[in-house]
Amino acid sequence: MRVAVFSTKPYDRQYLTEANAAFGHDLVFFEPRLDLSTAPLADGFPAVCVFVNDKLDRPLLTQLAASGTRLVALRCAGFNNVDLHAAAELGIEVVRVPAYSPHAVAEFTVALLLALDRRIPRAWARVRDNNFALDGLIGNDLYGKTIGIVGTGRIGGLVARCLRLGFGCRVLAFDQWQDPALVEIGVEYGPLDELLAAADIVSLHCPLTPTTHHLVNATTIARAKPGFILVNTSRGALINAEALVDGLKSGKVGGVALDVYEQEADLFFEDLSNEIIQDDVFQRLLTFPNVLVTGHQAFLTAEALAAISETTLRNIAAAEDGHVLENVVMAEAVSAPRASS
Ligand code: NAD
To answer: Domains of the chain, with CATH numbers?
Structure first.
């Protein structure tokens, strides 16, 4: 199938091209994000392939449908960036990659937590400057700490397992589905408020849905344990960033590790080192010594990129052959309990 592939970086092109040897699609790579101004590039393409920050709202989908697009292939698990109702009305099918390497994200989550708590970026910056002093680098043992995992699906489940069995933490969990295998290893499910009140570290792994939007806000921060560390490798809009800044200023929040940010579409995946960043909340976040931010890189392993490419191209082949689409995203998924991932 002819596919207009948007938001492509060199690594996307490399892995998609390698995987395409087995499929033979006609892939045309475009570097820009897909939006109303770049949509004409997709004219006449039956399929577009996009990533997490391509916002496929109704006006964009309408334009795509008018120029012949019938398939949107997401190179990601989350589908909060697509207006699924509009897509269904316009006869556009949406497919995704439900799971590629949950290990990639889970391992990065633990890496981010350790890097923040053990001050590793700060230590490395000092050592490069021949400053071997240790003041200001005191961390905490993870052993014996209470971790709160919000969302114990594929990724949250692995993080829970790693922290419970690998580090000897007490793990509390909040999810509408209890995973018996996690209960068996001692993970304790309970209400969100109890998790917040008891957890030294809270790690977010639920999808972004209308219910979870700004799950971390001034009210939930007020209910949390003073000095708690917050980790988010899921979706930026799970957190109200202004409330987070207030929590950091007051000391109620003891540290924050983020791989995602609500307004990341204006920032992430681009080199903005010569630009003036206009997002004051983001810039304020970066000034705290106890905040560590990465630019949505948790998925970025060789294994995950290969799996994303393979599944994306298989999804497109299935659509072309008229097969039942295994990884189709239905509009109803937006309100279903296990909605986006
Ligand atoms: P998953 O579907 O396997 O698990 C999500 C879990 O969250 C499920 O168990 C679900 O029941 C639970 N959940 C849903 N609503 C909830 C709520 N209101 N409160 C608590 N729990 C709730 O998904 P996954 O593969 O583990 O992915 C988790 C998240 O990670 C997704 O949101 C995805 O967008 C994000 N993600 C980020 C990256 C990255 O590079 N940073 C990469 C992949 C996925």
So the answer is: 2-100+302-335 (3.40.50.720), 102-293 (3.40.50.720)
